[in-house]
Amino acid sequence: MNRYSRVAGTGSYLPERVLTNADLERSVDTTDEWIRTRTGIERRHIAGPDETSSSLAEHAARRALKSAGLAPSDVDLIVVGTTTPDLIFPNTGTLLQQRLGIHGCPAFSLEAACSGFIYALSVADKYVRCGESKCALVVGVECLSRFVDWTDRATCVLFGDGAGAFVLTPADEPGVIATHLHSDGKYKDLLYFPYGVSSGFDKLRSNSTDGLKMLGNEVFKVAVRTLSRLVDETLAKNGIERSDIDWLVPHQANLRIIQAAADKLDLPMEKVVVTVQDHGNTSAASIPLALDTAVRDGRIHRGQLLLLETFGGGFTWGSALIRY
Ligand code: ACO
Q1: For residue 81, which of 25, 91, 120, 219 is within the disulfide window of CB 3.0 to 4.6 Å?
Q2: Whose alpha carbon is nearest atom 3 of ligand 1?
Q3: Active-site pick, 45, 59, 251, 279
């Protein structure tokens, strides 16, 4: 019999501190009205000075394990999608592992910007399918507030911090039906952070105030076009009709991008999980955050068919089709 993975539990976490559009009106030349009409965002959460990606991830992971009825000691694989690791090394997966008090299982991070969670899910799903993992913890987490340029109104209004997690366990029936991943590095200059370790490290060390760089308009156009193709691909490769989808759980970057994807599917917005108003773009954290919210408030039920889709820096993009 085929082995599949299934989502046994979900969890999420948002830091306590809330930064509203009204707060931003006081620090940059913007308005609540501009932010809401262009993006749908009303507020975002900002990690406290003592919080890190691994501490946010711990909250989400513990909640996901609790909802699955499992304990940290059951976990035999940790995959974390993040662009904002606590440290350059050790990787955030191992820091999370230590926080959970477990030792020995493989734990690693991967970086695919906003697509980090779907990439992590795809990897963990394969470990479970081939029998190498019986309890995989998959996390998307970001502390984007740390590298946003808070004087740049074109970007600082968009982003926030948070974490989301899934627990995957083996199942005889899907579960995770399929994941589809893509990337194309030719779009690097449309969305990137200008420094790393092997390039520009001196700038990082000198506390440069540069933040992430984005040509928002161009990103918007490519995102809408690419997500539309991705939805077609996901439906066709899995023999699924648009009408079969119970919930679209998109990356929460911008309400207008989400609406364009829903239009493509002929899905009314009542069947789309939208949480971007409450936390802004949390990159790799956004999909598990949105999905966990909709599970906990009773919108998403066991047995429903979910389409998850994402798009982000790289560019990277991907989808997951899940029978919840
Ligand atoms: N407040 C007020 N005015 C602003 C602000 C602000 N916060 N930011 C920009 N403006 C101004 C611009 O300066 C410009 O002024 P001008 O006409 O005098 O030159 C005007 O608003 C229009 O700017 P545009 O960039 O054309 O505005 P647009 O409608 O494209 O909206 C936005 C900008 C929201 C960034 C949009 O392009 C977008 O969402 N793009 C997608 C980017 C994204 O989501 N990236 C995240 C990572 S990728 C992903 O997750 C999908």
Answers
A1: 120
A2: 30
A3: 251
Q: Is 315 in the pocket of ligand 1 (CB under 6 A)?
A: no
Residue whose CA is at the smallest distance from ligand 1 atom 21 = 154
Euclidean distance between CA atoms 274 and 261, whole angstroms? 12
Alpha carbons 194 and 201: distance in angstroms, whole number: 10
User: Is 114 marked active-site?
Assistant: yes
Q: Which atom of ligand 1 is nearest to the CA of 286?
A: 50
The dihedral sign for the CA sequence 238, 75, 109, 140? positive
Q: Say how many Å lie between the CA of residue 153 and the centre of ligand 1.
A: 9
Catalytic residue among 114, 135, 143, 156: 114
Structure tokens at 60: 């989400």
d(CA 291, CA 276): 12
Global confidence as pTM: 0.96
Phi, psi of 312 (to 5 degrees): -165, -170
Residue 159 Cβ < 6 Å to ligand 1: no
